[in-house]
Design a protein that fits this description.
Blueprint (H helix, E strand, L loop, with lengths): L2 E3 L9 E3 L12 H7 L8 H14 L4 H28 L9 H12 L5 H10 L8
Antiparallel strand pairs: 1-2
Length: 134
C-alpha cells in the first residue's frame, strides 16, 4: 500500500515509496526491513537474501553486520506491531487479530538470525504465539 508505480518514469525511479515511518530518522536498514517483512506482501527467503546482499553492496556495508541490523530492526518493528494490534483487539477492534499470526511469523523469521538467539529465547518463553491461524 505504500508503494506506487510511476509509469512515466524509467528504471528504479518508476517505483515510489510513501512511508516515512512517522518522519523519524532511522538506521539505514529500517525501511528495507519494513518492506521485506510487510505482512501484506510475502517475500520469499531467497528474495530477502538477494535484496540484503544487493543493498549491502550498493551502500558498501558489511553484509553480515547489515543482516544483523535488518533482523534486529525487523524484530523491534514486529514486536511493536504485535503490541499495537493486541491493544486494538482488546479495545474492540477484532479484525486486527487476523494479522497477528503473520506478524508473529515475520518476528520468528527475524529472530532466527544468530545475533538474536537470546532475544528469541526471551520472546518464546514470555509471549504466547497467536492461537488463531487462518
Amino acid at each position: 500500500e505504500n508503494l506506487i508505480w510511476r509509469p512515466e518514469r524509467t528504471g528504479l525511479d518508476r517505483i515510489g515509496l510513501l512511508d516515512f515511518q512517522d518522519a523519524f530518522v532511522a538506521p539505514r536498514g529500517y525501511d528495507l526491513a519494513s518492506l521485506l517483512r510487510d505482512i501484506r506482501r510475502p517475500v520469499s527467503a531467497a528474495q530477502v537474501t538477494r535484496q540484503l546482499a544487493r543493498f549491502a553492496a550498493a551502500t558498501n556495508t558489511d553484509p553480515a553486520a547489515f543482516g544483523a541490523q535488518v533482523a534486529t530492526l525487523g524484530a523491534q518493528r514486529n514486536l511493536r506491531i504485535l503490541g499495537v494490534f493486541a491493544r486494538l483487539v482488546a479495545n474492540g477492534k477484532p479484525r486486527y487479530a487476523a494479522f497477528l499470526p503473520a506478524v508473529w511469523d515475520a518476528l520468528m523469521c527475524d529472530l532466527d538470525h544468530p545475533a538474536l538467539q537470546n532475544l528469541r529465547r526471551v520472546v518464546v518463553a514470555n509471549l504466547p504465539p497467536p492461537q488463531d491461524r487462518p
